[in-house]
């Protein structure tokens, strides 16, 4: 309906109150003009992520509730606890949802996060994963390790030092992920990777999230997880586009060149590279039983 056309539902409005009708039309034009200016400002500020979520969330009240819970918790983390401002990166939660939904359809296998810090993304993964499987979390829980910093310095003039991204703890993230109680299907392993991975070589993985930031542990994680990753399994590597951690991209690109594939880049704030193992990829690994809910100290702590 144009601004000048009479309202066909109420044909007498324009005839009985032409002044009121003209006033309403003027208000409508003003609102549209304000909206257009707001849209132009949003585009100029790259604030273009206001859109409806995937249709599956509208079709499934249970999935919608789970997604909203994960998004609210992630976006509510205070600047005091995470200076980067997680509220500024809601698209990352949506990326997790889509990738883990795909992983959940695979044959039985576990989930793993390599580099959990304070557990903010770990909680998101735990909400979206198949709850009948186990989620493993690996971290020094004492910040960057000096061995990894030494390697990082070989790639660029890295400002990072031993202990960056501390403090955190096993107990803290276990309580956070479980809303006060450590979940039975969460196993947290403290230590320097890859030493801390010993004993898990025969595990099969549906999904892996690598957020180690630095070149050497990202390289080690990719080389460790790829073979036991299920065909169709998903690996996400955070900070692929981060200027603060430029060697993260180098580690991913070098690995992809060796296996003959290219990463797909997801549009979260610091970019995430995603790899999916081909369905025809063969592996001799067999599933292995483990104890759920364990907190393990393995390898050398930072």
The CATH class of the largest domain, by name, is Alpha Beta
- Number of spatially distinct domains: 2
CATH architecture field of the largest domain: 3-Layer(aba) Sandwich
DSSP helix count?
A: 10
The overall average pLDDT, rounded, is 85
Strand order of the largest sheet: 6-7-5-4-1-2-3-8
Using only CA atoms, what is the Rg?
A: 24 Å
How would you describe the oligomerization state of the chains in this entry?
single chain
* Number of beta strands: 8
H/E element sequence: HHHHHEHEHHEEHEHEEE
Main beta sheet strand tally, sense and closure: 8 strands, mixed
Characteristics of this structure?
about 300 residues, alpha/beta, 2 domains, 8-stranded mixed beta sheet, about 40% helix, about 15% strand, globular, disordered N terminus, disordered C terminus
């Amino acid at each position: 309906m144009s601004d000048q056309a009479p309202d066909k539902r109420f044909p007498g409005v324009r005839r009985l109150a032409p002044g009121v009708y003209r006033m309403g039309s003027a208000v409508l034009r003003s609102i549209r003009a304000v909206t257009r200016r707001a849209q132009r400002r949003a585009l100029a500020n790259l604030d273009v992520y206001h859109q409806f979520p995937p249709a599956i969330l509208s079709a499934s009240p249970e999935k919608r509730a789970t997604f909203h819970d994960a998004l609210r918790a992630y976006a509510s983390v205070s600047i005091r606890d995470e200076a980067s401002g997680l509220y500024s990166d809601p698209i990352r939660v949506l990326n997790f949802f889509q990738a883990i939904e795909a992983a959940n359809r695979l044959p039985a296998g576990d989930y793993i996060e390599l580099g959990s810090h304070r557990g903010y993304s770990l909680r998101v993964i735990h909400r979206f994963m198949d709850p009948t499987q186990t989620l493993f979390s690996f971290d020094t829980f004492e910040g960057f390790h000096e061995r990894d910093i030494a390697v990082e310095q070989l790639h660029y003039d890295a400002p990072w030092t031993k202990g960056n991204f501390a403090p955190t703890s096993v107990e803290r993230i276990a309580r956070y992920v479980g809303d006060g109680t450590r979940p039975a299907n969460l196993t947290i392993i403290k230590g320097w990777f890859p030493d801390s991975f010993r004993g898990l070589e025969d595990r099969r993985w549906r999904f892996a999230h690598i957020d180690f930031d630095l070149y050497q542990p990202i390289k080690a994680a990719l080389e460790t997880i790829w073979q036991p990753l299920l065909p169709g399994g998903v690996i996400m590597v955070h900070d692929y586009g981060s200027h603060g951690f430029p060697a993260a991209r180098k580690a991913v690109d070098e690995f992809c060149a060796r296996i003959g594939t290219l990463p797909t880049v997801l549009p979260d704030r610091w970019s995430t590279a995603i790899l999916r193992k081909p369905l025809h990829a063969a592996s001799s690994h067999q599933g292995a039983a483990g104890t759920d809910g364990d907190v393990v100290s393995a390898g050398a702590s930072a």
